[in-house]
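Researcher: We plan to redesign the surface later, but first we want a full-length starting point. Tokens attached.
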């Protein structure tokens, strides 16, 4: 063998050396891709669990609402059954006409604000006490409180501050057809700084329930003389006595 001669095949890298020296960057790249894919999978799993929990929560909420409605209807049915079938008395089925009716309702009142937006909605609570002379005509004392302080724009573009105003009206009630009730009458709005005279026009529809109970949507329009107008939509529960 000549001096200085060294086999060239010994200078070649083995397959393992080629992987170590030439593919290390590729291995890092594939590793990062694998981590990204794993992260995406974990995110997808988390979203899937969130959707399942949300759906489960909605089902539980819906079930509770159904149970509550079933309980209320059962109570009303039992009350009606007890009234129509007393345990001791065996009098005729004819019942006296219930002249009095009380109701509570919650609504939202649209008020001119004088700003953008031009109207705002204020939550309100109401209590109604009514006396019906017969099935067609009655008188009602309707009382509402707007449970918020606000600034309202009057007809003369003046800004008026109102704090928890209370509206009381005495209305003539008329029942022209089934559960339809028409209302109209005078009243006043009381507030610590200033009171206003009010004229109210309203309409509601009573959906009868067992035991002389009813639920009703309502709409009314209030004119405050030389001040401002409002309208209210609401939903209530009533009971004839």
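Model: Full-length starting sequence:
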């Amino acid at each position: 063998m000549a001096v200085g001669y060294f086999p060239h095949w010994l200078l070649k890298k083995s397959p393992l050396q080629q992987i170590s020296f030439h593919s290390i960057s590729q291995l890092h790249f594939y590793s990062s891709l694998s981590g990204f894919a794993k992260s995406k999978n974990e995110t997808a799993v988390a979203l899937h669990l969130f959707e399942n929990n949300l759906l489960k929560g909605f089902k539980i909420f819906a079930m509770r609402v159904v149970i509550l409605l079933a309980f209320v209807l059962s109570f009303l049915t039992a009350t009606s059954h007890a009234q129509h079938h007393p345990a001791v008395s065996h009098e005729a089925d004819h019942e006296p006409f219930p002249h009095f009716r009380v109701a509570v309702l919650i609504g939202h009142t649209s008020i001119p604000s004088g700003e953008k937006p031009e109207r705002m909605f204020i939550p309100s609570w109401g209590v109604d006490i009514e006396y019906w002379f017969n099935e067609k005509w009655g008188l009602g004392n309707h009382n509402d409180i707007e449970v918020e302080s606000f600034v309202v724009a009057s007809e003369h573009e003046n800004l008026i501050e109102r704090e928890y105003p209370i509206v009381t009206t005495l209305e003539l009630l008329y029942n022209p057809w089934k559960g339809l009730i028409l209302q109209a009458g005078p009243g006043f709005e009381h507030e610590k700084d200033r009171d206003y005279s009010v004229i109210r026009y309203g309409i509601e529809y009573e959906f009868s329930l067992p035991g002389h109970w009813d639920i009703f949507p309502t709409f009314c329009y209030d004119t405050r003389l030389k001040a401002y107008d409002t309208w209210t939509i609401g939903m209530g529960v009533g009971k004839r006595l």
